[in-house]
Model the fold of this input.
Amino acid sequence: MTWLKSPCDHFPPQVHADLVKDGVCGVFIAEKLGMTPATASAHLSVLVEAGLVTSKRLGKWTYFKRNEASLQAFSQGIADL
Done:
């Protein structure tokens, strides 16, 4: 998740999308994690379903970014336990 907080520091520029506005292409995330795009997509889908990450489809690629509001609420909920 840290990589997605400051994507410009961790990923190369993307041709078809803005790293900050649109998110990071799932293929780049898979490469960074050392896994296949299909495996990364399965894990990212769980994070999207949990509301911690958002996804955006542009053409044939899916871009992911952190959902800061949900992450903050989640962190606060954990802190309140």
